[in-house]
Amino acid sequence: MAKWGLRLAALAYLLFLLVLPVGLVFWRTFQHGLSPVWHQLTEPDALHAFQVTLKVAILAVILNTVFGVLVAVLVVRHEFPGKRLLNAFIDLPLAVSPVVVGLALILVYGKFSSFGGWLADRGIQVIFSLPGMVMATIFVSLPLVVREVAPVLEEIGIEQEQAAWTLGAGPVQTFRRVTLPAIRWALAYGVVLTLARSLGEFGAIAVVSGRFVGKTQTLTLYVEQQFQNFNVAGAYAASFVLAFIAVVILVVMNVLRPKEEEA
Amino acid sequence: MGVGLAMVYLSLIVLIPLAAVVWKSTDGGLSGFWRSVSNPEAWAALRLTVVASLLVAVINVVFGTLIAWVLVRDDFPGKRVVNGLIDLPFALPTIVAGLVLLALYGPQTPIGINLAYTRLAVLVALLFVTLPFVVRTVQPVLMELDRDMEEAAASLGAGNLTIFRRVVLPNLVPAILAGTALSFARAIAEFGSTVLISGNIPLKTQVSAVQIFGQIESDNRTGAAAVATVLLVVALAVIVALDVIKRWSARRG
Lengths: 263, 253
Description:
By secondary structure, chain A is mostly helical. Helix content of chain A is 81%, strand content 0%. Chain A has helices at residues 2-29, 34-41, 44-77, 83-90, 92-95, 98-109, 114-121, 130-141, 143-156, 159-166, 171-200, 203-209, 219-228, 232-262. In chain A, helix 8 packs antiparallel against helix 12 (203-209). Chain A is globular. The two termini of chain B are 38 Å apart.
C-alpha cells in the first residue's frame, strides 16, 4: 500500500513537472503536420541562428576539451604552487549566474572599458560579436570536461605511463598511446555534456551578443525573440530542434556511461 | 608551461571578469553598493530569489529523495524510461524549459491552471531546472546501501517508517545535503527558465538574475554589479558548504 502511494506520488510529480509540459509543446508543434514546422525552420533568421549556435558551440567545445584535458592532467599528475587554488576555481563557473557571466565579460571586454577600448582601437571586437559569445559559452561549460576526466586519471594510476616512459616514449607519444585510450569514455562523456551546455546557453549569450537578429542571434535567443513577437509557431519549431538535440544527447550519454564503468 | 597556459585561460575568461564585477560594484563606495542592493526593486528581487530558492531546496529534499527511492527500490514497467527522463532538465535549454512550462501553466493552459506572471510560476520553473540534483546524488548512495541493516531492523520489529528514519535516512543525509546545496545554488542563479513565465514584474515576480539583466540593458552597470556580487558571495558560500559536506561524509566513511 505504502509502496503504491510512493510510486504514485513520484510519478505524478514527474508527470506534472516534466512529461506533460514537454509533451504538450511537442503536440502543439506538430498539431498541423510537418510542413508548417519545416516552413518555420527554413526561415532565413532561423537558419542563421542555427549556424551561429553551431559555430559558437563547436569553438567552445574544442577549446574546453583541450583545456579540460590539460587541467585534469595537471591537477592529477603534477605538483605546483597554486594547485589547490586552481582546483577550487575550476568549479566556480557552475555556481555563477549566466547573467553575471555576461556582465563580467562586458565589464572587461566591452568597448567602454579600458581593455575593451584598447582592443577595439586595434579592430578587435569581443562583445556583441563571436569572440565574446564563445568566451561566455566557454565560461559556463568550463568544468565539465575536467570533472569527468580527472577522477578516471586518478583511478588508472601512473604505472602504464611509467612503463611507456621507460620504453622510451616521449610525453606526446605516451599521452596519445597510453593516457588518451584510458580516458576516452570519460572524455567523450565530458565533451557531450559540454556540447549540451553550449547549445543551450541563453543568459550569458543574451548579455554579450547584443541579440542582433541575423547576426549574433543563437537558436535559444531566436526562441525568445519569436515568442515575444507572438510567433509562437516559430518559437515552438526552434524549441523542438533544441529539445530533439537534448534528447539525442541524453541517449548518447546513457550509451557512454555504462562503458565507462566497464573500463 | 602547461600550468601557465591553464592559468592564463582561466584568468582571461573567468577570474579577471569576475574580479571586475566585484570591483565595479564598489564604484560608488560602500554606501553606493548598499544603495544599489537595498533599492526596492533590487531588494524585492533578492528576497524573492532567496525565498524561492529555499522553498525549491526543501521541496527537492522531499521529492528528490522520494523519486530516487522509487527508482532504486521499486520496480514497474517503464522504469528505465523514467530514469532517463530525470536528466532531461539538464539537457534541455533553459529558455525551452520556460516555454514548455508556459504552455501547460500559462494563459493557454489546457488543464485550467494559469500561473503565468505569478510567484508560483517562478517556483515551478526553478523546480523544473533543479529536478535532477537531489535524485542524482541520492540514487547511487541508495544503490550501494547494504540491505542487511534494514533487514536486521525489521526482524527486531521496526516498522517501515522507523527503518527509513533510523536506518536509511542517516546514510543518505550527506548525499541529500549535497544535492540540496547544488539545487539551491542553481535556483539562485537561474535566468532563462524564469524569463518567459514570470513576466518579470518588478517588486513582484522579478528574480535577481532578471533584475541584473534589466540593469545591464539600461546601462546601470554599477547597480547590476552590486547585486551580481551578492549572488557571487552566495555562490561561493554554497561551494564552501559543499566542500565541508564532502569532507564530513568522507570522515564518516
